[in-house]
Amino acid sequence: MPAKKDIPNILIDAALKLATEKSWHDVTIIDIAQTAGVTIADCHAHVGGKADILRRFIARIDHEVLADLHEDDFAEPGHDRLIAVIMARFDALADHRDALRSILKSRGDLGPADSIRAIKSHFGSMRWMLEAAGFRTSGLQGSLRVAGLTAIYARTFRHWLDDDSTDFAPTMAYLDRELSKAAGWDGQVEKGLGKATGLCRKLSEKCQQIRSKKSSRRADTQPTDARQ
């Protein structure tokens, strides 16, 4: 019996192996347990089902990419760092392309609730990729960056699945183009948010001035004995 701490990873590996052999839709938890050499009870104790196994796989890839970053990587321009981080992610996924094709073809075999969790998981992954590349992901602009990169990654992922080159150069070129387009949009958003913030600040100051003037007038119009 595998050590308990290893069971989630063993289940992930078993699930990916099965996905290369048949449609992900036809893979059952019993199949995964038998391939992993564990019991159904062990599966229940460590994962919530097939969708949870996929989320754990995504988290494992996140960790592998982040763990492989070096201090020198942060000296590069943000655009180059982001390309490097995303391409490192594809490198980490390279051995699982057949399984990923099967999973994608079955759309993850997800129900509505699991689909929402999957979207949240992908947004979380892209948030970490952006942070690893030195981009802020807080606030409105940060949320827009996460959503934008998630969309770019989804398109690039499909491109990568069909990329038969040894170094994924076509995928990197496609990613570079997409991120370059998004960079211009991100700059415009940043300027727009800056202007909006400035306008809101001015409006707030104006409102405060109006309230102060009204308070002063009310104080001036009070009877003398009321102010004593």
TrEMBL record:
GO terms for molecular function: DNA binding. Residues 5-65 form the HTH tetR-type domain. Pfam families: COQ9 (PF08511), TetR_N (PF00440). The keyword DNA-binding applies. Residues 28-47 bind DNA. Keywords: DNA-binding. Transmembrane segments: none annotated. The keyword Nucleus does not apply. SUPFAM superfamilies: Homeodomain-like (SSF46689). This is TetR family transcriptional regulator. It comes from Thalassospira povalilytica. The lineage of its organism: Bacteria, Pseudomonadati, Pseudomonadota, Alphaproteobacteria, Rhodospirillales.
